[in-house]
Every structure is written in C-alpha cells, then in structure tokens.
Design a protein that fits this description.
Layout lengths: L2 H18 L15 H6 L1 H7 L2 E14 L2 E8 L2 E8 H4 L1 H8 L6 E10 L5 E12 L10 E4 L2 E4 L6 H6 L1 H7 L4 H20 L3 E2 L5 E2 L11 E4 L4 E5 L4 H9 L4 E9 L11 E10 L3 H20 L3 E4 L2 E4 L5 E4 H9 L8 H10 L10 H13 L7 E7 L15 E9 L2 E8 L4 H16 L10 H8 L5 E7 H9 L18
Parallel strand pairs: 3-5, 8-12, 16-17
Antiparallel strand pairs: 1-2, 1-4, 2-3, 4-5, 6-7, 9-11, 10-11, 12-13, 13-20, 14-15, 17-18, 18-19, 19-20
Length: about 500
Amino acid sequence: MDNRNQLMQARRQKLQRLEDMQVNAYPNRSYRTHIISELITHKAELLASEEEVSITGRLVALRRQGKVGFGNVADESGNIQIFVRRDNTGEENYDVFKACDLGDFVQIDGICFVTQMGEYSVKAAKVTMLCKALRPLPVVKEKVVDGKTIRYDEFHDIETRYRKRYLDLLLNPEHKHSFVTRAHLISGMRHFLENRGFLEVETPVLTPLYGGAQARPFLTHHNTLDITLYMRIAIELYLKRLIVGGFERVYEIGKVFRNEGMDRSHNPEFTLLELYQAYTDLDGMIELTESLIKHLAKSVLHSDKIECNGVELDFSVPFRQATMLDLIKEYAGFDASDFDFERIKAFCLEHKMEIEPSAGSGKLIELLFDHFVEPKLIQPTFVLDYPREISPLAKLKPGETEIVERFELFILGNEYANAFTELNDPVDQRERLEDQVKMREMGDSEANVMDEDFLEAMEYGMPPTGGLGIGIDRLIMLFTNNTSIKEVILFPQMKPEN
C-alpha cells in the first residue's frame, strides 16, 4: 500500500471513531458570528470584550501535543490561529479535535486572545466537525535556488492545475484573482450597457440551424422531437430577430460553442458578448467599443494603462484606425485593392500560403492579413473595410461592390471584437447566404448555412443597425496579464487522461 493510500485509510479510521462517538462528521448546519477578516479588523474590541465568537473554515495547519493543540483555520476572507486545550473543551470534545486532519472543515466557538508567544488566536471552547476530508491535501513543496523560493509541488504543473481546478484554487489562492477580475469585468459590462439603455436578453443555445459566424458546430439529437440540434456558434441571428420585433438595444452575455482547434487563445466553449443597436452604424460601434474597454480599464483596474506580456498598453489615447488593405500594403508591400484574384493568388503562392479550393479574392486578402499584419498589431487598432466574401452579414460600404462596413479590434496580435453595419436588405442577404452555400459545396465547412426563418424575419423589415461581438475570455486574459485562455476559464476543456 503506497503512502497516500495509508493516509486515506487513516482518515477513514478517524471517521469511524467519530461515528463510534456518535458525532456526525457531516452535519446539516453550521453557525458563525464572524468571518475571519472581521476578527482581525476588530481585534482590539474583541480582546477587550472577551465576546464569544464562532468561526468556520478549513484546517490548513495542525499540530497537537498531549492535551494541547494548535491549528490554523482559513475561510475565504483570511486565516487565523486556533488554540485548543482539553481543559477548555472537555475530554469528549477534545477527542473530536484529535480526529481532525488537515483539510477538514470545522467550526470553532471560543474567545479571542493573545498567546504567550504573542500570536492573536481563538481559544476554543468547542470544536465542531463540519466535513471530514477523506483525501489528504497535496503537500506544497518549496526549495530555495539562488536566494529565491521556488515551488515544485504537483500543482505547479499547468495541466494538473487545469484538470483539478478546485485544488489549484485551494493551494494557489493567488489564482483566484483572475476569476474575481472576470466577475468584476462582466458586472462592469452590464453596468455600462444598462446605462446606455441596453436590455439584457437570453436566446436559445440549442438551435435547429447554426449561423452568425464562420465556424463548425457541435451537434446533438433531441429524442422527443427526433431532430438534430446544434450548439450555437454565435448569438447574432436571434438578437437581430429581436431588433425586427421592436427592441432597439439588446445584448446577451452567454456561452457559444465552436468545433475547432484548441490553442492558447481558443477554447471550444467560450463566453461572448453580443449586442445590437438600432439606428446606428459602424461608427457608433467604434465609439461604443472604445468607450466600453476604456470604462472597464478604469472601473476594474483603476488605470488607463495595462501591462500584458511585457508590453504596456495605453488606453488613454484614441485607438488607431486603419483599413485592411492599407495595412496589407504597409506590412506586406502588396496592393490588393483591385481584388484581382490571379494576381493575389500568385503572391500568396509565392509566400507558400495554403489556399482553400473555395477561396475567392476576399479570402485571399484575409489570408494576407493573417500572415503579414495580424501579429504586428500590438496597440489597440480598429481594422476597417473587410472583403464582402468573408462578411456575409455586413452591409456594403457606399460606392463599393467588394468592401463592407466591418471592423475587428486587434490588441497584442489577437482579435478582441468584431462589428458590422448590419445588413438589413433581405434580397442582398439571401444572395449572400446563397454564396455561402456554394462555398460550403466547394468544401468550406465553416461557411454559413441558409436560414429561411431568419430571412423571413428580415423581410418584415429591420431598421439600420450596428452590431458588436466581444470575446470575454480574451479580454480577461488581457486584463489579468495571462497568455493562455485556460488560465481564465475555471474548467477548460481538456483531453481525457485515459
């Protein structure tokens, strides 16, 4: 039997001892008068009054010697020492304390005092077991190298941390910061949008068709209806239906699912903000996006400068704006503004780029942008004027036949937001989706599908509208100086160990 199994067996024996004493190791209720941070904040008053307090938490340190024991109890707010003596608790209750192990949850009733060693503590009059932990917590190991303390326990390993996030948070409490920031950022988004008159709504996650983005879906089967359903890849098409129905400003923060590759900035399940505003356009979305991000920096980080990946991002100045074609010309030295397919294709092949059979000039221009430009956009940059071919839901720019009113916001070489002047011409929209169907038939598995119900809604009329999507997980990465999306998702998708 290995050491870990011996420790687990010893804990089960202590559980049996508690049962033999008729002590419930998993009671239904607990009680506390203070969280631990309050004991520390009100130290002087509690020492003077000798008021009885009750605290609850996990035992994170434990040492016993005969009739006396010390430990440390931690809750979400802090950590405090406890002093347990048999003369104070009585023999039966001290036996409960003797059955405690590291990791157990306990309730301590007593008074606050200062030990002979000067340690502020709770002197226990009673110890109540709240939850007997049957597995020992992993031991946090440290070693000093060149004067620096280095951790090398199993939860310093990244994969283990992601798979067992509950232990990661327990042993590495500093990692909670990213998720606290996440909650504050989402709350800040809601506050900002509500102040601008937006209504939060909820739309279906399971849909009979998928659309609103270029991505492959996950599919499932509904047994009662005997139909195939898809996990949504975007929120767009249902929110547009609401604009048709008379709502003028709507948004949703929700999960979307894309059956695609995984890397440091992609997880198949991620959180998206999508919003739609009637009687505005791309310029309105630029103003809203820039104002929102600057507001979040100020309200969440209390600064208009962010340090991320060793780069200082300055949100105090206006974000740069540049067209996709101008940026390709700047970084690749190639002018693609004539949309000449053969000439652009030859340039792509010259630079050994892989071209899909369904690609037209617009897709090749996107390929050039991805290759030459995207990694170089470090400071916040709105990239404008996208090809019509890769933007089937966006309105054409006035006077243009191949360019639509669309932007993507890039920071540190990654996309953070995507917005359109939304296409509200139902005839043009049908033609665009028909083109997407042809691309799909040519092998483009990420092309949009034909959605007749959405087209019918468009035929009832949708006012001029601006739409915006922001990837929340990536924004959290930016705000918490993380380089992997798995650091900001509590339970990221992982390949099974077996």
